[in-house]
């Protein structure tokens, strides 16, 4: 998950949003590694999502019993009336 976050934070649109340098991203990921409760993703749960790179994010949220899962790009999210 930290690898995926580091990869996404380097996307040009994300750099334009947060403005972090490569060193700051590296430091941030290091901070999260030290501060987070690490869980091991079980490859068995299948999550029906478009981007297969997000599977580890969803599995980590489920295994870690996350209360909140932030979503970027809410304009694509469908809501029910």
Number of domains: 2
- Tell me about the largest β-sheet: none
What is the count of β-strands? 0
- The pLDDT mean sits at 80
Structural class: mainly alpha
| Helical fraction | 40-55%
Rounded to the nearest angstrom, the distance between the terminal CA atoms is 33 Å
Q: What share of residues are in beta strands?
A: under 5%
What multimeric state do the chains show? single chain
Overall form: globular
* Low-pLDDT stretches: none
| Rg value | 14 Å
What is the number of helices?
4
Topology order in helix (H) and strand (E) letters:
HHHH
Write the layout of secondary structure elements.
Layout: H1 2-9, H2 12-18, H3 22-35, H4 55-63
Structure description:
This protein is an all-alpha fold and 81 residues long. The protein folds into two domains: 1-36, no CATH class; 40-67, no CATH class. The chain is 47% helix and 0% strand. The chain is built from four helices and no strands. Helix 1 packs antiparallel against helix 3 (22-35).
